[in-house]
Design a protein that fits this description.
alpha/beta; Aldehyde Dehydrogenase, Chain A, domain 1; Aldehyde Dehydrogenase, Chain A, domain 2; seven-stranded mixed beta sheet; six-stranded mixed beta sheet; 15 helices; 22% strand; binds nicotinamide-adenine-dinucleotide
Length: 475
Amino acid sequence: MKMFLAGQWVERSEVLEVRHPYDGSLVDTVPQATEEDVQTAVAAAEKGARQMRRLSAYDRYRILRRAAELMAERQTMLGELISREEGKVLREGHYEAQRATITMEVSAEEAKRLYGEVLPMDGAPGAERKFGFTLRVPCGIVVAITPFNFPLNLVCHKVGPALAAGNAVIVKPATDTPLSALKLVEILLEAGLPPLAVQCLTGRGPQVGHALCADPRVRKISFTGSAEVGEKICRVAGLKRVTMELGSNSPLIVLDDADLNKVTEATLVCGYTNAGQVCISAQRVIASQPVYEELVERLRESVSKLVAGDPFSPQTTVGPLIRSADAQRVEEWIQEAVGQGARLLCGGRRRQSIVEPAVLAEVRPDMRVYRDELFGPAVCLARASSFDEAIHLANDSRYGLSAAVFTQDIDRALAFAQRVESGNIHINWGPQWRADFMPYGGLKQSGMGKEGPRYAIEEMTELKTVVVHLSEPAE
Ligand code: NAD
């Protein structure tokens, strides 16, 4: 595909290949944007931002609404493209396309809700003749940098709110998965978006992404990706607003009164969806001593039945990792943990980019497979001898994106919600659950700021305060 720069679909002599993660077949190529392209894009976005500012909220709503309708009509094509470039099983590709449509629908609605407020000025001494209110205005140019694992929905989580708020947006999609983002641009243009309001530059992060983040004309960076890259971006961003949606190694706590059927079902969904390449995957299952052995048995039995393979085959439940190198890393971390005393209950073997779904028991907090973000199809089991120890283990991480607890005891469930350092908390389901409208974002090194269109719009707008100095008191 071509990339969309300054109102034109363009090609470049240097291209990047997009390959299907399962068999390495060539899906398509995209241009490698240059530093000069970044300059052109930002200059065009300045014009695009002025055009967007002049559109009414209702016009922005109508364009986004139409885009969501077009996405719904093209759901099958979008779902297949997601699975082709990312490697997730087809059912998950379709599910992502459906969620992305909802994200755009919610963004359209939120375009009409950019409220300000009247300020009670007479609350300050001597300010009886003042009348104050706030205005919410767009930031100007938003740069959206996205990861490979949800190549459409996470782009929508940035582009939808940016446009709803009246900004121009430049997308730098993940190097491995740029095609769904380019399709989204086609749809937005067809829906009537001014062509300078959206651009999509394909290319490598350290060049294209870096140049976009360093440009002083950009007012806002919305990034989703690894903590390491997020930190680099914060260093070059300077005086810009940033939203950082970063990684995690989410805990799932199982207390002694938990419903183990539900725990098993949730662990299968939350630990192995998208081959574990989800920022809120259940990575650390911490079970109370009395239920530990039974859970070990249940997980061994059910995870062994998962089928890893071709994402387009209906039998497959777990697809490949994005690259063979990642599969190799996951295999190595599992082997390293086994060497350090963990018990491998099933899986863990690798075939090219496929890793057989694995469960590791007797995992200790110092093992890499538990301590760092694994981003692969394996779940670690550890024991807790008390509720306090379970909370301590859940918090023993540099991350804090999502955490879950299974218990029938409302007091312990709410104590968990209060004491666990995590942006999202789930009670009686695993950490991997999200409705696209809800506020979503991490604590600690999982990031800062929130997504979910209403909350992203707050971060992509500026608040102005207006004070009218009246000659007479208002009443
Ligand atoms: P990544 O950090 O390697 O890349 C993310 C994006 O940053 C890509 O577009 C990449 O090209 C770009 N990039 C790389 N170097 C850059 C630089 N120096 N300057 C600017 N941009 C640069 O992440 P990934 O491997 O694509 O995705 C996996 C990571 O994303 C995991 O850590 C995962 O937890 C995280 N993630 C977080 C969320 C969330 O909502 N918190 C959601 C999905 C994924």
